[in-house]
Write the structure tokens for this entry.
Amino acid sequence: MIVPIGHVLACSAALFAIGLTCAVIRRQIIMILIGVEIMLNAAALAFVGGSAFWQQVDGQVFVVFLMAITAAEVAVALAMVVYLHQRKRTMIADEFNRMSG
Amino acid sequence: MNWLDLLALGPHVFLVFGATSLLLLGAWCSKTRVILLSGIFVSLLSALLSGIAPPVDGDIAGLFSAGGYARFFTIFWFLTAAITLMISVRFSIELNLNAGEYVALVLFAALGMALLSSAIHLLGLFLGLEALTLAFYVLIASNRRSELSAEAGLKYLLLGAVATGFLAFGIGLVYTASGSLHLPEAFQGLQAEDGHLRAWGLLGWGLLLTAVGFKISLVPFHLWTADVYQGTPSPVAAFLSTGAKGAVVAGFIGLVISSGSAWKDLSDLLWVVAALTMIFGALGGLPQNNLKRLLAYSSIAHMGTVLVGILCQTPTGFSATIFYIVVYVIANLGTFGVIASFSRAGEEPEDLDQWRGLGYRNPLRCTVLTLLLLSLAGLPATAGFIGKFAIFHAAIQSGLVSLAIIGIISSLIAFAYYLKVVIVMFSPESQADRPSPGEPLEFGVLAACTTAVILLGLFPGPLFDLISKILP
């Protein structure tokens, strides 16, 4: 490997942290979902890096499955977003606060 | 993948074909009851198929085990799905749900649970967990007349999505550090002394545990539980609190058994998590006046106890945990079954005030609920007591004495809120609104759950023998 594995992992960890921060800080539902996508892409980067480091194909196969799962998750999540928007006419997560305690 | 693998996967394939055909059937046939009954038939038949299928050596495509442990949980989750469908019949007719979609989603979730429980490869674990989570995102929001159901769906979606991110990145780091996704090797790779990637691997293990913590609502990742349970329609809540959590625990036991010393580095942390979860589950339920929120805290407390059983790291501990899960699933299905049987057009008696005096007007169902709640609380002579006793006994044997004491004290505290429900049900003031009279299918489920709880309380031996045989 030309790029040391430590650098790949550091990069993916940074990406993961950015995605998590986005998911935690932003209140717009779409932005939270984008944050999650960044977290999943960080995972994919770690897999590809590990796959190259160990000279195996397992990690890359996992990434293909991860993409499929992500696509399914986005499909369900966006359907939910449309449904929630129809109900409440808002996309701000904090507005959905009927239950607490 | 060869013919033997396909044979071992037969029941799962049958379930998927059944679910897909019912999804299609739903487009033409508008008879909700027919579709739900065929869904029950499909899941019962799949359970039967996986019970009578000839034993297969080895594993399925290196992803899933085909051993006794996997088969036990496959049958168990398929039966749980059947029971969930039985208590959803009236719910989906009254709300005029698209029955094909509802049944298909429940069956897909059951498939995810079965795969998750039998995973011996981190990819299998990930796929199983996602299959069940994706189905639940939709199921939770399925009550379209209720704003709370939509809100619960949103909360579960956002937290579930973040947990997926943690799980994927955790598995990614474990893989990078160890070079394998297959379960024993994935963790053995972490133990290499010279491995400079060991720290990354442990971080991955930690993230993986965080994702598991989200799914089975361990403190500090438990905040979604009460809200989601409150908003979720009871039949779905029954499935969510039993199958979704139980399957994660079953998969987690498989992880822990294969993890070796990577686990020991984190067991102190998990000791604290288990203690906090039991205490929060017991204390958080005390001020609740909503039965479903109360059951949410009860499930948090139960998951804390389950973690004690897993922390034992002995075969006795693991078999006690599996017994506990089985009993918890049966009692919780029955409890939510009683709530569902009282519901009318998606309106459920949730507030404890609505339960006041119900015990005099519907003595039979309220007695059943009392019995199941006492089993959840762990009153002696019920199955719940045997489960708690087995776990705390195993904990004391393996030196976790203080954890066992915390567990026993918090079980005693939790008694207070279970008894509160019972007292309210049998207190004299009577309210005007009449809950639903229920229907035979629901009574059948309640009778089965009650019988199982009593029988397992009196004769726990056979189940313990079975569990000790299947333990991997």
Remarks:
- Chain B has a mean pLDDT of 90.
- The two ends of chain B are 23 Å apart (CA to CA).
- The first strand of chain B starts at residue 59 and ends at 60.
